[in-house]
């Protein structure tokens, strides 16, 4: 399951710098001032997880910053643990390398529950398919009319639009992870051609097997975790030799 947090502002940063001057002053450069209105009106942090043919509800993280204790109490214990138990031994959790996620208390909890965590390359948010959904969610909420005037209205709009997201889009993002990994590796300098060819051949071979989608996923997606492990190791080697 691919997971992540994101923050949405009531009045997001429009990246514009406004130039103004006080009334009854001359239109001269020394009277001009710059104004940059960024993220006014408060913001909301949310968490969610996605996997093939399933996504969690959008969880609103209230009451300040997300700490390791809150991550355990509000996300891992009530949501991830139950989903992992339902999936069984093939469940693998993807969360990024944020300090909150890698705290000792979190590591100990996942180990005690037998939850396997996917290795993840550092500084690679665009590798996570849920990032595309955050963009889609933000665009959908911004189209609401009238726009959200309070944080409660923003929260309601987010949860409504999250439920309306097309499940086929979610599945496509996850099924496209092998291509995403290959492109990411190429952006970081490329990999030897034989490995690249092997990745492509394996994906095509599994897709052509006369099996149901469920069985194909059991074969294909454990291999995806190996690819991501390879990406993490490859980036480590690149950074080591710099």
From TrEMBL:
Q: What's a Gene Ontology MF term here?
A: nucleic acid binding
Which keywords has UniProt assigned to this entry? Membrane, Transmembrane, Transmembrane helix
Q: What InterPro entries does its record include?
A: RNaseH_sf, Tc1-like_DDE_dom
UniProt KW Ligase keyword? no
Q: Which residues form the Tc1-like transposase DDE domain?
A: 2-142
Entry superkingdom = Eukaryota
Which Pfam families has this protein been placed in?
Answer: DDE_3
What species is this protein from? Stegodyphus mimosarum
The name under which this protein is listed is: Transposable element Tcb1 transposase
The transmembrane segments are 218-241
């Amino acid at each position: 399951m691919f997971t992540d947090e994101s923050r949405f502002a009531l009045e997001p940063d429009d990246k514009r710098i406004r130039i103004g001057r006080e009334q009854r002053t001359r239109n001269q450069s020394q009277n001009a001032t710059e104004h940059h209105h960024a993220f006014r009106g408060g913001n909301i942090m949310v968490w969610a997880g996605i996997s093939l043919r399933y996504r969690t509800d959008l969880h609103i993280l209230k009451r300040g910053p997300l700490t390791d204790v809150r991550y355990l109490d509000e996300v891992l214990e009530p949501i991830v643990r139950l989903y992992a138990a339902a999936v069984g031994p093939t469940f693998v959790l993807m969360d990024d390398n944020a300090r909150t996620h890698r705290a000792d208390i979190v590591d100990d909890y996942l180990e005690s529950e037998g939850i396997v965590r996917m290795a993840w390359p550092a500084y690679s948010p665009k590798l996570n398919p849920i990032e595309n959904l955050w963009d889609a969610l933000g665009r959908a909420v911004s189209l609401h009319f009238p726009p959200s005037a309070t944080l409660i209205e923003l929260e309601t709009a987010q949860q409504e639009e999250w439920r309306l997201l097309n499940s086929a889009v979610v599945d496509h993002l996850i099924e496209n992870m092998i291509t995403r990994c290959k492109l990411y590796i190429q952006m970081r300098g490329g990999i030897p051609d034989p490995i690249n060819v092997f990745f492509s051949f394996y994906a095509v071979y599994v897709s052509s097997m006369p099996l149901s989608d469920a069985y194909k996923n059991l074969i294909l997606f454990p291999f995806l975790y190996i690819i991501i492990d390879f990406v993490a190791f490859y980036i480590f080697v690149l950074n080591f030799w710099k």
